[in-house]
Design goal:
The chain is an alpha+beta fold. It has ten helices and nine strands. Helix 5 packs parallel to helix 7 and helix 7 packs across helix 10. The longest helix is centred in the first third of the chain and has 30 residues. The chain is elongated. The two termini are 49 Å apart. 33% of the residues are buried.
Length: 277
C-alpha cells in the first residue's frame, strides 16, 4: 500500500500542472496518508521484532457461560492428547469421554487422557464438595464426591478396556480444585465450573497453553495414582461400568460401599450435567 501511495504521489507531482489546487490538495493528502501508513508499518515491525512468536500467535477468547459446553466438546477434535483437572468429571464422563472414545475408534487414532480429580479419602474433600454443590443449588451429601469419582474412574477404565486406541492416566489429588481445566492439542478452556460464570479459551502452541498444561501435569505427578488391568470381557459382555468385573481390575480406588456404588450407577445412567442443554 505504501508503495502504491508513493507511486500515485509521484505521478500527480509529475503530471499535474504546477500550482493547481488539485495538485496541492492531492500531494498534501497523499503525503500525510503515506506518512501515517509508514508509521503504522514501523510500529508493527517493532512489535514483531520484540514479541516472541508464541505470544504473537496466542488467542485468548472470553466465553459466556452458555458457550462453555460447546467450547469443551469441540476440544477433542484432532486431539491425540487430552488433559482434565476438575472436581468430579461429570461432564467429562457424559460428553467428552464418549466423544474421545468415538473419535479414537472411528479414526483409528491413538488418544491419551490425563485425568485429575479429587481424592474423596483426603481430609474434608467430601464435605467441601457437598458445600460447593449446595452453593450452586444442586443436591449433594457427604458421599456425592465419592460416587462421582467412582463413576468417572469406572467409565474411563471400561472405555479404555473396550478401545485399544484409548489410553488414560488417572490421579486423585489431595484437594478440591477451584478451577476446571480442559485441554487438548487444539487448545485450553479454563472455567470456575459454576453457573453464570464465564470461561477463557486459548489456542495451543503458546505460553498460556503451556502454563495451563504444566499445571495439570504437575498436579497429576503429585496425585495418588489409580491403575487397572484390562477388563477381561468383550464390549458386549460388560454393559455396567460398575460391574464387579470392572471394579476388581482397578487398584487405588477410594473407599466405597454398596450405597456409593448404587449412587455412582445412577450418575452413569443419567446424562444430566452443568453444561447440558
Amino acid at each position: 500500500m505504501l508503495g502504491a501511495l508513493l507511486l500515485l504521489l509521484f505521478v500527480i507531482t509529475a503530471y499535474a500542472p504546477a500550482g493547481s489546487p488539485f495538485r496541492e490538495f492531492a500531494t498534501n493528502f497523499l503525503g500525510n496518508f503515506a506518512a501515517t501508513v509508514a508509521v503504522f508499518i514501523a510500529i508493527y515491525l517493532f512489535y514483531v521484532l520484540i514479541t516472541p512468536p508464541g505470544l504473537r500467535d496466542a488467542e485468548v477468547v472470553p466465553l459466556r457461560d452458555v458457550e462453555i459446553g460447546d467450547g469443551i466438546i469441540n476440544l477433542p477434535a484432532n486431539a491425540s492428547d487430552y488433559w482434565f483437572w476438575g472436581r468430579s468429571g461429570s461432564y467429562f464422563r457424559s460428553a467428552v469421554l464418549p466423544r474421545l472414545d468415538d473419535l479414537a475408534r472411528r479414526e483409528r487414532r491413538h488418544i491419551r487422557i490425563r485425568l485429575v480429580i479429587p481424592d474423596p479419602d483426603q481430609g474434608a474433600n467430601g464435605v467441601l464438595y457437598k458445600r460447593l454443590k449446595q452453593g450452586l443449588g444442586e443436591a449433594a451429601d457427604d458421599t456425592t464426591l465419592s460416587a462421582n469419582v467412582l463413576a468417572t474412574i469406572s467409565a474411563v477404565v471400561l472405555a479404555c478396556s473396550r478401545n485399544p486406541y484409548l489410553k488414560a492416566e488417572i490421579g486423585l489429588c489431595p484437594s478440591v480444585p477451584v478451577l476446571r481445566y480442559d485441554l487438548s492439542n487444539s487448545g485450553a478452556l479454563i472455567t470456575r465450573d459454576a453457573k453464570k460464570l464465564p470461561a477463557i479459551l486459548t489456542n495451543s502452541g503458546n505460553p498460556y497453553f503451556e502454563m495451563f498444561r504444566d499445571a495439570v501435569e504437575n498436579e497429576l505427578a503429585q496425585s495418588r495414582k489409580v491403575t487397572w488391568d484390562l477388563v477381561p470381557a468383550g464390549p458386549s459382555d460388560v454393559a455396567d461400568a460398575l460391574n464387579d468385573k470392572v471394579l476388581t481390575t482397578i487398584k487405588g480406588l477410594p473407599a466405597y460401599d454398596t450405597t456409593i456404588v448404587e449412587a455412582a450407577r445412577q450418575l452413569l445412567s443419567s446424562k444430566a450435567n452443568r453444561y447440558g442443554r
